[in-house]
Amino acid sequence: MIKVGDSLPGATLMEYSEVEGNGCSIGPNPVDVAKATAGKTIALFALPGAFTPTCSAKHVPGYVEKFNELQAAGVDEIWCVSVNDAFVMGAWAREQKTAGKVRMLGDGSADFSKAVGLTLDLTARGMGVRSNRYSMLVKDGKVAALNVEGPGKFEVSDAATMLAQAKG
Questions:
Q1: Domains, the chain, with CATH or none
Q2: How far apart are CA 26 and CA 19, in angstroms?
């Protein structure tokens, strides 16, 4: 598992582009993690799946709500990563009203989640291999803080915890 002080692995996430017309995404577009984090402070949070209850009711809304405070604390971008394709992430972004606040990035084949060692096997629930729920503060491509949730928990990867770490 990745730890504080480690560099993020070389990986590509996929992102929808802003909606053009009748709900059709442009893209998906690749996001090279190393290039996209270079010289920036990123509040990255990951979760098991788009449109799932805790993720939709608490996790994403918390980061949308704390966007201005996180920026004031020095965070350049907020990323939400999930083992879903970019089209699903785009639809979820529209539903969650994340535009201009949270980049919704798909890790469709779980390559990033596997590379950071934070997968969650939900095969028994019909969901396959997903991302664990966690957050990390990333500075210039290196992990500055890491908050991994226990099974079924939502206690340390929330926006308030990230904000306190960004201010620290």
A1: 12-167 (3.40.30.10)
A2: 7
Active-site residue, selected from the candidate residues 36, 55, 73, 102: 55
Taking only the tens place, the pLDDT of each residue in 65-109 is: 999 999 999 999 999 999 999 999 999 999 999 999 999 999 999
55 flagged as catalytic? yes
The model's confidence at residue 138, banded by pLDDT at 50, 70 and 90, is very high
- Residue 154, burial from CB neighbour count under 10 angstroms (0-12, 13-18, 19+): middle
User: pTM for this one?
Assistant: 0.93
DSSP sequence for the chain: ---TTPBPPS-EEEE----BTTTBPP--EEEEHHHHHTT-EEEEEEES-TT-HHIIIIIHHHHHHTHHHHHHTT--EEEEEESS-HHHHHHHHHHHT-TTTEEEEE-TTSHHHHHTT-EEEEGGGT-EEEEPPEEEEEETTEEEEEEEPPTT--SSSSHHHHHHHHH-
